[in-house]
Amino acid sequence: xxxxxxxxxxxxxxxxxxxxxxxxxxxxxxxxxxxxxxxxxxxxxxxxxxxxxxxxxxxxxxxxxxxxxxxxxxxxxxxxxxxxxxxxxxxxxxxxxxxxxxxxxxxxxxxxxxxxxxxxxxxxxxxxxxxxxxxxxxxxxxxxxxxxxxxxxxxxxxxxxxxxxxxxxxxxxxxxxxxxxxxxxxxxxxxxxxxxxxxxxxxxxxxxxxxxxxxxxxxxxxxxxxxxxxxxxxxxxxxxxxxxxxxxxxxxxxxxxxxxxxxxxxxxxxxxxxxxxxxxxxxxxxxxxxxxxxxxxxxxxxxxxxxxxxxxxxxxxxxxxxxxxxxxxxxxxxxxxxxxxxxxxxxxxxxxxxxxxxxxxxxxxxxxxxxxxxxxxxxxxxxxxxxxxxxxxxxxxxxxxxxxxxxxxxxxxxxxxxxxxxxxxxxxxxxxxxxxxxxxxxxxxxxxxxxxxxxxxxxxxxxxx
Length: 465
Description:
By secondary structure, the protein is of the alpha+beta class. The chain has helices at residues 2-14, 20-81, 193-196, 209-214, 320-327; strands at residues 89-93, 97-102, 108-126, 132-148, 150-159, 167-174, 181-188, 218-228, 234-241, 256-266, 273-274, 281-282, 296-309, 332-344, 348-361, 369-383, 387-397, 412-425, 432-445, 452-464. The chain has 2 domains: 32-82; 86-464, Porin (Beta Barrel).
């Protein structure tokens, strides 16, 4: 019995020890398997990393190739585009649509295109006539101007489809030296200020009766123009013209000789000489009645003569031929002078002009007729650069001496007009504006003929761009 108990105790103690080596063997195997799994994962990751690195390398190579291709294309474009037309072409807006370029030889070309459109509504109540209410396309001026071939060779070309005379201006100016610049073509002759004032920069809708009578307007001819002094304070124009008016042709050798000189003082510090202007002068002294940042004064004098004028053959602009017909003169020598001044500042402006004319018949008993006229106008800005009130008085006095007017003939002895006006400058200059004018006009006659009065209301909108 005791022996049996001893055997049982020994069995209990020995049996657990027989499983230890087997368990230890199982743990070692698991560790080995885990290591193998780690090595497999590391190998797999290494392969993935290598694949990713290869993809990155391929992408970088492709990117570098693209960059090299882009650089090559740019280089090629730069080489080709140096002579491309669009690299030598510039377009912008500057008081008109401006285009600039050069040709293959590097010669400069510049063109400014602008449009002046005026639409007018009027009511005219003149004695002895029906009241006339009218809407009118007053002007539609299409203008091209600039330089060609050289920076000193200027051109201007202007037409007006709304006018009875389609061609208005066509002239060349060679301003190699601003002091003496030849000009040839058709343009406004350098004479009286009111006519030289651009139609797009008038203070009133219509020019005065003085201008209608004494203006020479446009003609074809040759002139010298220029600006003198560091600030171009003095400008001039001196020329010979056909004397047959706009689009006219001279059929004799009795030419129109015209000259004008102008002095400018003060101004807005822009003294650049505008060689291509209607009357070339410094920008500060251009012929505009109002708008000045600083006090500006200008004064001008002009003279003209046309010997042996036969209105059956040649008809200069203005009222001279109507006057010769009214006096029943034969061919005549006619001479005119004009003098003007303008003072303008920010809020106020005033302008005056005097004109005189002598008509001397070549034959017959009649004396030389002396006619004269003047105008005075002024404006005040109620709102700076925006709202202006203005007024103008103009008078023309005709020679009615017995040695001039044929007996028992009734002719106009005097004309005068008074015109108040209101201007609304929507663009703060003359480019875009609305104008309203009233004009009372009286025509007086000889031989006791009754006066003829006219009451005229005008409203006009303008766009110049």
